[in-house]
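[recover] target loaded
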């Protein structure tokens, strides 16, 4: 998946992954009962990003992102220093 957004410096563009809406026992949770996602898939990286690459799934500090909507799609901009981990 490509994006029209090209991040600068140590920023990356990601798309939030949907939270699980089903419990371990199989119950479906209403949308307002799930937490805001803190995991995302990286779509583009700035030239100074060293440890994260396009396609990685990341865990990030949710309070330090910038949300952008472009052509009906929501993206988040995250500084590399606010990425806590990659998910394998």
């Amino acid at each position: 998946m490509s994006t029209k957004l090209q991040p600068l410096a140590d920023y990356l563009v990601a798309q939030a992954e949907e939270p699980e809406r089903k419990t371990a026992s199989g119950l479906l949770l209403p949308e307002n009962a799930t937490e805001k996602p803190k995991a995302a898939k990286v779509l583009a990286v700035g030239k100074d990003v060293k440890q994260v690459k396009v396609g990685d799934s990341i865990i990030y500090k949710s309070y330090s992102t910038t949300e952008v909507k472009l052509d009906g799609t929501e993206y988040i901009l995250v500084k590399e220093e606010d990425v806590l981990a990659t998910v394998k």
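[recover] notes: The chain is about 0% helix and 40% strand.
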